[in-house]
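pipeline/complex-builder :: batch 7 item 3
reading input block
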Amino acid sequence: MMELVKTGADNHEMVINMGPQHPSTHGVLRLELVLDGELIKEVRPNIGYLHRCFEKYAEELQDYAKVIPYTDRMDYVSAMNQEHGYVIAIERLLELEVPERVEYARVILVELQRIASHLLGIGAFGLDLGAFSPFLYLFTEREKILDIFEKNSGARLLYNYFAVAGLMRPLQDDFKGDVADFVTSFRPKIKELEDLLSYNRIFVKRTANIGVLPAKVALNYAASGPVLRGSGVAWDLRKNDPYSIYDRFDFDIPVGTGEMGTVGDCWDRYHVRVLEMEQSLRIIEQALEGMPDEGDVMAAIPKRIRPKDGELYVRTESPRGELGYFISSDKSAAPFRIKARAPSFVHLSMLPAISKGALIADVVAIVGSIDIVLGEVDR
Amino acid sequence: MSKLTPEEIARNLQDRFGADRIELMKGSVGQPWIQLAPEMLPPVALALRDDPAFQFDVLMCLSGLHYDKENELGVVYNLDSTTLRHTINLKVRVPLDHPHIPSLERLWKTANWHEREAFDMVGIIFDNHPDLRRILTPDDWEGHALRKDYVQQDFYQGIPTK
C-alpha cells in the first residue's frame, strides 16, 4: 500500500505502511513510514490491534486473585515476571508475609523466565537481520526452561503459577536438580552465542551506530530495563529499588559501553541482554544455595481479599524493563482501578524519536532492539 | 541533596506555593500522594523536575481514574528520581463535565502516549497536548472504556462487537 503525498513541486515524500502483519513487527504493530527516498522522515506507530482492555476485566472480576491469569496474557513471553509484579503489589496492599521457600522459588522462576525471554528476544532480533541459525540454537535452550516450568506449573507459556503469598502448586521434588542441570548446561552456550552472533561482521554492520538513544533522552522518555542500560545508565530495579529478596544476591548491572559503535545503539541494547543472562545465572545459583528444602508454598491468607482503602504503585524489573502496577483500592473486594505500566508501551513511544533519519531496513533493527511484545503494549 | 520523604517534599512545596494549595493525603494502606488543583500542576511539576532538591527526572506512570460516586475524573502521576532515589505521587481531580488538565508532555516526553491512553480510556482532555488522539481504540470508537458506567457499543462499522 502506497500513497503519494503531493504538497509541493519539490516534495518527494511517500508514506509506506509497514504492518500490521509484518514479520519484523513482532506481532500486530502498524507503522506509517514517511519517506524521502529510502530515508525515514517520520514514523507514526499505530497500536491497539491486540487491545483487550485488561484493566476493565480486572475491575469487573470482583476479585484481586482472579486477575493473576490475565496478567500472564499481557507479556506472554515472560508471564512469570508479570505475575510476580502483580502478586507483590497485592501482598504489599494486604501487608502479607511470604514464606522463605516461596520467595526463593519465585526468584529462581523469574530469573529463568528472564533468560527465556531474552533468548526469544535475541533470537528474533537476529532473525529480523538475516541470522537464521542462532534463533534455532537459542530455541533449544528456551525449550529446556519451558520444560522445567511445565513440570512444576503444568503450562508452557501462560502459567498462572504465582498466588497471593504463595505458589499455586507445590514444587516438584527434583526442582533444584533440574535448575542446577540447566545452569551448568547453559553457561557455555552464552559464549557460543557471542561467537555466533555478537561479533559477526554482518550483524555488527547492521546494528552498530544504528538507532542511537542518548541517556538523557532515554530518561525523559522513562525508558527502563535493557533499553536504558544500553544507553549506559546503570539502573536496575533489582538493585536500585530492591523488592522480594533481591537485596541478598550479588550480581552486576551490565551497561552499554559503545564497544562496537556509539553508546546506546542497537548493538549495545542487544549486548546488554546477552550479558544479563550470565547475571541471571549467578542469581539462580545463589538462590539455589539459599533456598530451604522444606516449608510451605502457601502462607495463610484471608479467603476473600479485601484490602483497606489506599493506593500504591509497585514496580519490578521485567525482562523488558520497569513493569509497574498502580492499584487503587476502595475497601471492596473489587479493585477500584488497576493500571499496568508496560515497559514495551513506553519504549515504543520513543520509536519516532530514535528512527528519524534512518533507512527503512534500520527501522527493522530498531524495533527488534527495543524488544517489544505487543500483548503488553496494547494490554 | 539527599533523599526526601513524601512529607518533606510536601512541606517544601507548601513553603513555595502556599500551604492551602498543596495537600498530602494517604489511604489506610499504600503510599501517600500530593493532591493538586489542575492549574497548580504545571508549576509544581516543573519545580519537581528542575529543582536540585527534588530532581524528579522520570515520570514512571500516569493513570486515569473515574470516581463515579463523586462525579469526577482524576489522574495519578508517579514520579521517580534516578539521582536522589526518591519517589512521589501526584493526583489531580477534575469535575466530569469539565475534564481539562494541563499536559505534561513538554516536561516528560513519556507523558505523550500515557496522556493519549488516559484520554482514550477515561476521557480526560489534556490541554496543550501536541497530538491528543485515541491510541488503543479506533478513532471513531464511542465512549471511554474505563468509565464505570461504560456500555460497549453493539456494532462497530457494521461488525458485531460482542
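note: The longest strand of chain A covers residues 310-318.
queue -> next item
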